[in-house]
Amino acid sequence: MTEFLATVGVFIVIDGVWLGLVARTFYRRHLGYLMAEKPNWAAAGVFYLLYAIGLTVFAVIPGTDAASALEGLWRGALFGLVAYATYDLTNQATVRDWPAIVTGVDLAWGTILSASVAGIATYAVMTFF
Question: How many CB atoms lie within 10 A of CB 26?
Fold first, then answer.
């Protein structure tokens, strides 16, 4: 449970900064024609919980078991790449006029975000708990 709570906390902070400060104008510029006026907070909440469970199970717990933040980090990177690629490449294949730049940025962000979250959460659990 400690691993999960650390993962959720770190994930919300880092992704919140990205979405609130960096990506807001990027997504509006490239996907404005698809965006809802208001976010569906229930769907967002379910995503964050499920994604945090995945990162915890596939990256943070193996990292803490190995006593290695680097283990958590590389596993998180791989998890993020696969998860974000599933979403973006499916959209690239099926949504008319899906911008390739969005796919590229999302794949990079998903990899960096997930690696960072898993590495930091693994380190935090090993250090403080």
Answer: 14
For residue 13, how many C-alpha atoms fall within 13 Å in the half-sphere facing its CB? 11
Report whether 53 contacts 4 (CB < 8 A).
yes
Q: Which pLDDT tens digit goes with each residue over 73-112?
A: 999 999 999 999 999 999 999 999 999 999 999 999 999 9
Could you list the residue range(s) of the whole structural domain that residue 64 is in? 2-128
Single out the residue of 76, 75, 72, 80 nearest to residue 108, CA to CA.
80
- Spatial CA neighbour of 72 closest among 55, 96, 90: 55
The residue type of 109 is: W
Dihedral angle at the C-alpha atoms of 107, 110, 115, 121, nearest 10 degrees?
180
Question: What's the structural domain count of the chain?
Answer: 1
Residues 11 and 117: beta-carbon distance below 8 Å:
yes
Spatial distance between the Cα atoms of 75 and 58, rounded to a whole number of angstroms: 7
Residues with Cβ within 8 Å of residue 5, at least 6 apart in sequence:
none
Give this prediction's pTM: 0.93
Find how far residue 70's CA is from the centre of its chain: 17
